[in-house]
């Protein structure tokens, strides 16, 4: 009986050790095509990388050998490759638990091979500096980025095709220095960005069209240094400007998008912006105290109160009021509209 127990124990230990040997004990660092080929031989049944997956080989031509990988618990870095064309070999990868950096891969022409990737759960996801990339096809199932998401330096890319399944970005979303980008087509599924939305230094972008009409932007909005950009009055942006949750910057773009007032005017005159024409807006808000009031309804008297209820300024039948001489802080703006009073909170900053 004792001999049988010892034999069973040895079998359990052996099976445990075999299981541990199916994958590297920590991360996988591929520095040459040979090291990738060795991984395929040494770990043919590995389906999860317990740590980082780093591919920094200049001579690597394919990722065949990673065929069974479904999850990377650590970071996923692919940098400095001049011969890698795509990500074929990673077709089972569904989740990356930490940061992603795909950067400076001069030969990369496609993200194909990452077709099952759904979640990037780390601090950031950086897609950068691959000059031959024309779109983001291959990322078609990417649903959520749980940190900062940046797309930049893709000089052949004309639109963001391939990100149609992206619904949520938990931090900042930045699109910049893509010198052939025309619009934001590809973001039709985006529902929420919890951090700042930034579109800047894209030399050929002419419109923000393509962004989901119902996209909820929960922090600041920065759109600047896009010299050809003329159309910012899309539904999601116009609805954001009704009551922005943080600061707004429109500057150094083409006419129509060159400042917040231009965008507000375009939103009011546009026939496509649902809900906007029936709204009243204060712009810019926050601002320096020079307040413009936009809306389709006729405004009667305007009164401004501090937080103690003291009236500090008033005017009749105008669409602007100036409290720039008053201290920074929160003020309440009362508007008389069709014999009814409506109140708005205004933040004055220096």
How would you describe this protein?
This protein has helices at 2-20, 33-42, 235-242, 260-269; strands at residues 28-30, 48-49, 53-55, 71-72, 76-79, 95-96, 100-103, 119-120, 124-128, 144-145, 148-152, 168-169, 173-176, 192-193, 197-200, 216-217, 221-224, 248-251, 280-283, 290-295, 299-305, 311-316, 320-322, 329-337, 340-348. With 350 residues, it is of the alpha/beta class. It folds into two domains: 24-281, Leucine-rich repeat, LRR (right-handed beta-alpha superhelix) (Alpha-Beta Horseshoe); 290-348, Immunoglobulin-like (Sandwich), CATH 2.60.40.3080. β19 (280-283) and β20 (290-295) form a beta hairpin. The longest helix has 19 residues, at 2-20.
TL;DR of this structure?
The protein is an alpha/beta fold.
How far do the termini sit from each other? Answer: 85 Å
- Please tally the helical runs, counting DSSP H or I stretches of 4 or more residues: 4
> How many β-strands, per DSSP?
25
Strand content: 25-35%
The domain tally reads 2
SSE pattern: HEHEEEEEEEEEEEEEEEEHEHEEEEEEE
Unreliable runs: 7-20
Query: Tell me about the biggest sheet?
Result: 10 strands, parallel
Q: What shape does the CA trace take? A: elongated
Computed Rg? 27 Å
Give the CATH topology of the largest domain. Leucine-rich repeat, LRR (right-handed beta-alpha superhelix)
């Amino acid at each position: 009986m004792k001999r049988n127990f010892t034999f069973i124990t040895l079998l359990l230990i052996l099976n445990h050790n075999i299981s541990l040997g199916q994958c590297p004990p920590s991360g996988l660092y591929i520095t040459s095509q040979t090291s990738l080929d060795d991984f395929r031989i040494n770990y043919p049944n590995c389906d999860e990388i317990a740590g980082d997956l780093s591919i920094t080989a200049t001579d690597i031509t394919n990722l065949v050998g990673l065929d069974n990988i479904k999850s990377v618990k650590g970071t996923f870095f692919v940098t400095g490759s001049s011969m890698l064309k795509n990500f074929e070999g990673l077709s089972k990868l569904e989740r990356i638990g930490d940061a992603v950096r795909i950067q400076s891969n001069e030969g990369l022409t496609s993200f194909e091979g990452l077709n099952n990737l759904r979640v990037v759960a780390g601090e950031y996801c950086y897609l950068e500096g691959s000059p031959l990339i024309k779109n983001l096809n291959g990322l078609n199932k990417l649903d959520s980025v749980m940190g900062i998401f940046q797309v930049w330096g893709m000089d052949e890319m004309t639109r963001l095709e391939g990100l149609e399944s992206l619904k949520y970005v938990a931090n900042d979303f930045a699109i910049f220095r893509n010198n052939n980008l025309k619009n934001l087509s590809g973001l039709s599924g985006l529902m929420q960005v919890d951090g700042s939305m930034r579109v800047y230094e894209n030399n050929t972008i002419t419109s923000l069209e393509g962004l989901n009409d119902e996209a909820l932007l929960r922090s600041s909005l920065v759109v600047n240094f896009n010299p050809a950009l003329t159309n910012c009055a899309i539904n999601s942006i116009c609805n954001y400007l009704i009551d922005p949750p943080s600061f707004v910057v429109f500057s150094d773009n083409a006419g129509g998008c060159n400042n917040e007032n231009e965008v507000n005017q375009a939103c009011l005159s546009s026939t496509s912006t649902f809900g906007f024409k029936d709204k009243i807006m204060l712009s810019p808000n926050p601002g320096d105290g020079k307040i413009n009031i936009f809306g389709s309804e006729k405004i009667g008297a305007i009164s401004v109160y501090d937080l103690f209820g003291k009236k500090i300024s008033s005017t009749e039948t105008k669409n602007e009021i100036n409290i720039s001489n008053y201290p920074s802080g929160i003020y309440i703006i009362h508007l008389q509209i069709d014999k009814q009073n409506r109140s708005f909170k205004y933040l004055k900053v220096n």
